[in-house]
Amino acid sequence: MSPNTSKRLRAVLLAALVVASGAAAAPPAKKGTELIETARLTKEEFTRLIAKFDEVADLLEKSEPDTAKVLREAASKARRALIADNMEEVMKQLRKGLMTMAAQTSKDVRDALEEVLRILRQGALDLDERLKRMAEWKKTLEDIEALLKKERDLERDSRPKAFGDQLSQQMRAHAAALASIIAKQRSLLGRAQKMGPAEPGARKLTDLRDEIRQLIKDQEKLHSATTSASPARLPLAAPAQKKLGEAAKGTQDKLDAAAKDAKLADALTKAGADRTAAASAAAKVGQASGEMKQAAKSMAGSQASQASKSQQNALHDLRAAEKALADAIAKASEKTPPGQMAGEQKDLAGQTDKLGKEVQKTADKAGMQSKAGNLAKAADHMNKASDKLTDQNAQGSTGDMKQALKELEDKKEQLADLQRRVQEKAKEPIQKQGRPTSSRTRPSTSSKRPSRTSRTPSPASRR
Predict the structure, then answer these.
(1) Is the pLDDT of residue 247 over 50?
(2) Which of 143, 224, 307, 410 is 20 to 30 A from 89, comparing alpha carbons?
(3) Domain that holds residue 268
(4) Residues 406 and 442 in one domain
(5) Contacts of 186 (CB under 8 A, 6+ apart)
(6) Residue 240 confidence (pLDDT) above 90
(7) Are 412 and 268 within one domain?
(8) Within this chain, do residues 255 and 402 fall inside the same structural domain, yes or no?
(9) Taking a C-beta distance cutoff of 8 angstroms, is the pair 175, 415 a contact?
């Protein structure tokens, strides 16, 4: 293949690839018309070039059979991929202002062109030439990625116009849902404020459960420290482990006292809960205390593996004790007013979390940044309030309810602002497209575009 022919193939194919990727670097007022005109001119030149592939391949059949084979394969690939037809489809979509569809079709064209170019690049080339081409391709692909980013920005800006009615409808639905959640949360707060303090028996169990939970946290920290400590430093942590064992023994004593409370046992039975929950928890915490003492002795003797095993056993016993109390508390609160309200609060937290995700999805679709969809803090406060209601602590739940309402009110304002921006963006006129610009304003698609004198010679001139 002559140098001019090779140069011609590379230059025009690279120009087509740049146009197919969406040359959005032009000024905003000219993006549509310049893209259409550039795509039209490149499509015509690309079509002529593909027609030359077979013709030049015939001429090179005897002198350069490998190159001829590469040309035929590239031409066949281009026809099977319908590259020219897709270029025409891109122009139609651009004229209609369908930027999203044009972007997807452009990507299909680019992918197909990359495959054709891959075939040509892997033709009969020596090593130095291959390395040179690979460097050129790396630079070209970097430029294409930059152009694609600009195209994505253009596509993002066009979404409110393309989906204006749908987005506005979704925003109105989100605003209505948020207003409903706020109203329900206000109602729950009012009801909680009217409730009296928790029953002493129920409060006793929740306090003991919280003590066990704190023991679990402290033991987990000590276990982590034991695992990472060197044998020489392990004895330094032994006093802390011993002290934690003594704290566990104090919790066991409190649980033993609760287990002997006849009124508490009767209340648990009446509610359908396990009346022996406190006794079961006391036994497990007692076992954990013994394991902690053993762990402290092993740590003092720098016996890391034995200390770790005892700590793990203590954690297992503590978690069993916590579960026994938690199950009894949940069962006992099911039919109480605070317990029933806890279920309502938990459901509302789920609705809030779901709405936050839906708002964020709509904001992403509109191509806009907003914090209106971040309802996680509100949902978290609701869940905390639900836990306190389960513990029969209605008065304690009101603080989290108020915080949840504050978060919701803040998001209500942000959601209104997002809705306003979406509506304003949707009303902006879509730029008029379709009339091609003159050749003097047409953007260049290749800095090395060959002159007319360097085009592939016809079969007759070659002969």
Answers:
(1) yes
(2) 143
(3) 171-423
(4) no
(5) 405
(6) yes
(7) yes
(8) yes
(9) yes
